[in-house]
Amino acid sequence: MSDAPPGGSFALPAERRIKQSREFARIKSNGRRLSLGCLVLNWIVSSSGLSPRLGVVVSRKVGNAVVRNRVKRYMRESFRLHQAELPQALELVLVARPSSARKPFSDVERDFLAALKQARITN
């Protein structure tokens, strides 16, 4: 029995990541925003998207490089595990708040799911 989502694998390949600063700026300026818990969720519905995409922003205020990388891993993993539940043409940018440095993965994932629900992206 496989735990893979119906439409494909649980992987997070490069085409599902937002990397360019102009894409981050476009989502921030044209998209919607919601703050909840240890993160800020920015999203936009894209007409050309084949699958949901994710970008993660973690500033130096969160902590040193080790802490920032752990927070980024937690956020990417939350997205990766629940990407099958998201609409196909969605682009998300997660911005970490300084409180995320002290949270375990379960709390980051809970805040991510709560933000998606409050934004009415998922049920």
Walk me through this protein's architecture:
This protein has 3 helices and 4 strands; from the N terminus they run αβββαβα. Mean pLDDT is 89; it is low at 1-6. It is α+β, with helices and mostly antiparallel strands. Strand 3 (53-57), helix 2 and strand 4 (90-96) form a beta-alpha-beta unit. Helices cover 34% and strands 20% of the residues.
Brief sketch in words of this structure:
The chain has three helices and four strands; from the N terminus they run αβββαβα. With 123 residues, the chain is an alpha+beta fold. The two termini are 26 Å apart.
- For the largest sheet, list the strands in their spatial order: 1-2-4-3
Number of strands: 4
Could you report the average pLDDT, rounded to the nearest whole number?
89
Task: Estimate the global geometry from the Cα principal axes.
Answer: globular
Element-by-element helix/strand order: HEEEHEH
Low-confidence stretches: 1-6
Proportion in helices: 25-40%
Structure classification: alpha+beta
Report, as a whole number of angstroms, the end-to-end distance. Answer: 26 Å
Describe the sheet with the most strands: 4 strands, mixed
H/I helix tally: 3
Taking Cα atoms only, what radius of gyration do you get, to the nearest Å? 14 Å
Strand content: 15-25%
Using brief descriptors, characterize the structure shown.
123 residues, alpha+beta, four-stranded mixed β-sheet, 4 strands, globular, disordered N terminus
